[in-house]
Write a structure and sequence with these properties.
The complex is a heterodimer of chains A (414) and B (275). In chain A, 79% of the residues lie in helices and 0% in strands. By secondary structure, chain A is mainly α. Chain B is of the alpha/beta class and 275 residues long. In chain B, helix 3 runs parallel beside helix 5 and helix 9 runs parallel beside helix 11. Classes of the chains: A mainly alpha (414), B alpha/beta (275).
Chain lengths: 414, 275
């Protein structure tokens, strides 16, 4: 087995330390300003990357992040694992039983909140390819991607906002959470199909890949879940706690990820589905969930979010027109879609608007999606930057907008 | 509280025990008893029934036996509606095989579709069961205030010695992980707040009811409430679990289990469904 040289190790450790430190500082600042930690962590990456540090201290930036290819490769491996783990907890957060118990209104809000932004995201590039600098042959795939990228709500951001506003336990809060969960699930399914279209190095033909993807999904959510329900009580009883359940769930998460990567759709999809199956099991205790969340959220998530800023220059790739177009279609799609869904299920106009604003928060998932599309040459850096900005802006504005909509209601007479 | 009791009988070995149990309930609620049998009326069966009845219900004035033919579930439910029954009592097995779970046994079908309250006994005894340790589902649902009110009345009539009301924190792990973005003190505070909110919810309902002399214990769990209810009932060896139901369950609900389905899958103890 090859190993890192003395200098490589030092460089890798310095990278990791810097990334975690700066991410922590900015996450704390973000929280002081009542913003999600993700926002701070992404900003930390932009500051450490070519955008800021590369401009003001190019020598230091070069030394830390560019000079050592072996250490860079090692870091890339760690970031890959981080993305897989992020998707794993995203899956863990989806609790199907909560969705069913919320009934029709959650499904309606969620489906409309998925379909309308998808349509907006799809049609805009499809009919105005010039805006995005698209060529004819890429148009279809790009439009599909854009549709998906605009339709996934950031569940952790939403939960945090709802908890801060004391809305989590209300009917509206539960409906938003359930809606966001369905969104996640369907959004990723669509994306996995797009991934197979992208023609990555897979082992199967397109139709087969899609078929196997769907089969794998059904398998994970039925038989896979059943198996977990059988295995988990045993692990809880016989193995060390929480060691047993932690290492086993990681191991199976990586196995599922390896399987989907082998299929030719991305590794993250397997991790996500395994997360859904595990999270929905009766026997995974809430305490274990909390531990899994904590260590991924606070160690792996910041590494990933900082790494985004390290890859791309956000200044030279910032295209104001593009950013505005994406912002407008993302706001309009989600607010109209989810809002109308809520209105249709009997919410007042103001409440429906609040639901729309809440569902509008995007975050990690859009960025991960964008990154994969970027790596596969489907989008360019300008569009990726615009997507990251969109995720930041929608996450930052969700809470104030919701407050505004609900306050407006309080001012009304009666 | 329950003026009209119906008992579904099937001439199984457990019939006598079920009749004895129903007789005891009639005594508590001072109501009338209706026996429902779905099947052909034969002199032998009639003789068998009247022999059992004379042993347990000889003194009972208001008692009626209805013989009907047809599909068991439908006939039982229809008869209950026609007779305006308040409480239907029936026996059920503790656990069903996978196949019967999806197709459904008569007992579980009746539980799902009945319009009146249903008391399911998994181990009826001739010497009758005393519902001493009772667990009530206090999870925040629309029907919960009613379930607690009716449940406590039942416990009072039965003179239960200990009543546990279980409420759950929804998505506890996720909420705590999200709260993990605060300082240690803030996180501890959130944890306390989450637990307190659930206690307050049940306490609020209790405060709105007339005070009782029952020993009531409010317990907060995290996780899926149906699973937690079953676990809790098993751990304290409860005699009775009282819960509400969600209307209109169908085959789809068994594919994507609702919370009631989780309890019906393996009955942890006797079960009273309040409608």
């Amino acid at each position: 087995m090859e190993s890192l040289a003395h200098n490589d190790v030092i460089n890798l450790l310095l990278k990791l330390a810097t990334m975690l430190l700066v991410a922590r500082i900015f996450a704390e600042v973000a929280q002081k300003l009542k913003q999600p930690a993700v926002v701070g962590e992404i900003l930390a990456g932009i500051i450490l990357g070519p955008t800021v540090l590369g401009m003001i201290g190019p020598d230091f930036f070069e030394f830390l992040f560019r000079s050592n290819p072996s250490a860079n490769l090692a870091l890339d491996g760690i970031v890959q694992v981080a993305v897989i783990l992020l998707l794993f907890i995203a899956g863990l957060e989806v609790e199907l039983h909560l969705v069913w118990s919320q009934g029709k209104s959650a499904v309606s809000i969620s489906l409309l909140g998925l379909v309308v932004p998808f349509v907006f995201g799809f049609l805009t590039p499809y009919f105005f390819p010039g805006l995005f600098g698209l060529t004819e042959e890429k148009k279809m795939l790009f439009s599909l991607f854009m549709g998906t990228a605009l339709s996934i709500t950031a569940l952790p951001v939403v939960v945090r906002i709802l908890m801060d506003m004391n809305l989590f336990k209300t009917k509206m809060g539960m409906v938003i959470v359930a809606g966001a969960m369905v969104n996640d699930l369907i959004g990723w399914l669509i994306f996995s199909v797009i991934l197979s279209f992208m023609g990555r190095a897979g082992n199967f033909s397109l139709i087969n890949t899609i078929g196997i993807t769907l089969l794998f999904t059904v398998f994970m959510l039925s038989i896979g879940k059943g198996l977990l329900n059988k295995v988990l009580p045993w692990t809880n009883k016989k193995l060390a706690w929480p060691g047993g359940v932690l290492s086993l769930s990681m191991a199976f998460c990586f196995l599922a990820a390896a399987f989907t990567e082998w299929l030719g759709i991305h590794a993250i999809f397997g991790a996500f589905l395994f997360g859904v199956a595990l999270g929905d099991s009766d026997h995974l205790s809430e305490k274990a969930k909390e531990i899994i969340h904590q260590f991924i959220n606070n160690i792996f998530a910041p590494l990933f979010f900082v790494s985004i800023g390290l890859k791309i220059n956000f200044f030279t790739n910032f295209d104001l027109g593009l950013v505005l177009v994406i912002l407008v279609i993302s706001f309009a799609g989600k607010i109209i879609g989810s809002g109308y869904g809520a209105f249709r299920s009997g919410y007042t106009l103001k409440d429906a608007l609040a639901v729309g604003f809440g569902m509008n928060a995007r975050g990690a998932m859009e960025i991960i999606l964008g990154l994969i599309a970027l790596e596969n040459g489907l989008i360019n850096e300008k569009i990726f930057v615009a997507l990251v900005v969109m995720a930041l802006v929608t996450s930052m504005t969700a809470a104030p907008l919701m407050k505004w909509a609900l306050n407006k209601k309080a001012e009304e007479p009666g | 509280m329950y003026r009209k009791l119906a008992l579904a009988i099937a001439f199984s070995p457990r019939m006598e025990a079920l009749i004895a149990e129903a007789r005891k309930l009639i005594q508590i609620f001072e109501g009338e008893l209706i026996l429902i049998h779905v099947g052909t009326k034969t002199p032998e069966l009639e003789a068998q029934l009247s022999e059992v009845l004379s042993r347990h219900c000889g003194d009972l004035q208001r008692i009626k036996t209805i013989w009907k033919e047809g599909k068991p579930t439908k006939t039982i439910l229809k008869t209950c509606e026609e007779e305006k029954v308040d409480l239907l009592v029936l026996g059920a097995l503790k656990k069903e095989g996978l196949l019967t779970y999806y197709i459904g046994s008569v007992a579980r079908k009746v539980i799902r579709k009945s319009k009146c309250s249903v008391l399911t006994l998994i181990e009826p005894k001739i010497e009758t069961t005393h519902f001493s340790k009772v667990v009530i589902n206090g999870t925040e649902l629309e029907i919960t205030p009613r379930v607690i009110a009716r449940g406590l009345k039942f416990c009072q009539a039965e003179q239960s010695s200990q009543v546990h009301i279980l409420n759950e924190i929804k998505l506890y792990g996720f909420q705590m992980a999200t709260a993990g973005e605060g300082t240690e003190a803030e996180v501890a505070n959130t944890r306390r707040k989450l637990v307190q909110e659930e206690i307050n919810y049940v306490q609020g309902i209790l405060d709105s009811l007339e005070p009782t002399d029952l020993k009531i214990n409010i317990k907060v769990t995290a996780g899926k409430w149906a699973v937690e209810l079953v676990r809790f009932c098993e751990s304290i060896e409860a005699d009775l679990l009282i819960m509400g139901d969600e209307q209109g369950l169908s085959f789809i609900d068994r594919l994507f289990p609702h919370d009631l389905e989780g309890v019906l899958e393996v009955l942890p103890c006797n079960l009273l469904i309040v409608k």
